[in-house]
């Protein structure tokens, strides 16, 4: 009589006998993940010991194989979310910060709408309507929801739970044309004056006097185009103000996660955005003053740090900048605005390629779309050109 066919990853009846050496031998049939059935055996001093050793070997064999998902088209979306997050953790292919961001966006934007639905109930029409309704309230939230919903459903397709990803056919998100905001030179000087007045102790009531770091941070952002996290991650070893051309190496960023201490990450937003930037004189002067005020710093000490020597958080610096400028009647200025201001100035006076290189971009389209403020004034040379082309014949 033919033996029953085993399911993949399962074993048959266990038989035990005494081997020629006098030890007990336990064996069984195990259907491997390639579909082939193989005999697995173990020995022990007693029949029970041999059987225990065999079962332990089978468990070990199973753990080395791909995990078999228990998801089906009738599983709830909430189960897929848990499975998706576990898969991300197992692959370790994205940063912890990005992983936490994915989970936050999934829990807050997508799960409230989809958790009680089975996977087979999630089709193109439902996904399309969800994204469009969310986009009415916020383009950015719709974009974030679209990313995590696509990734989770794509995992279900790869693991053969769903035949196709409904997000592949959802209509594209469209947003109103966005013109990056940049500061003018007079506006930059007004901001500098407001910070200098505050750092000079004007209107100071109690507590420690400002230590001058905020003004230096702004000058470094204006002189390097660096992100606020990159500026706060500059170490003493990254600063060269004694060479013929003073420079700063941007090679890290500050990371703050819920429930963890703020720390310096050993690469910027992307590994490719590591760069060394020559400093304009106003930035070099600000760095020299900061080094003089900070006293002796170890090579790995941060250029900007709290009074306890810990990293400054980007949130606290943003909050302090907003408060200081707000006291001077200046609103709407963010650290990222300095990055756009630098990109616009370099583009206007040189080229978009140089602006992209300074910002650490590998694609000038990103620089143009998100960082360079478009000028309405067309180059006046067109007037002279058209005079030559269509001058009236007297």
TrEMBL record:
Which superkingdom does the taxonomy of this entry point to? Answer: Bacteria
Identify the Pfam families for this entry.
Phage_int_SAM_3, Phage_integrase
Question: What family does the Swiss-Prot or TrEMBL record give for this protein?
Answer: Belongs to the 'phage' integrase family.
**Gene3D superfamilies to which the protein is assigned, alphabetical:** 1.10.150.130, Intergrase catalytic core
The protein, known as: Integrase
Q: Which residues are in the Tyr recombinase domain? A: 178-387
Which species? Conyzicola nivalis
**Keyword set for this entry?**
DNA integration, DNA recombination, DNA-binding
PROSITE patterns, sorted: CB, TYR_RECOMBINASE
Location of the Core-binding (CB) domain: 75-157
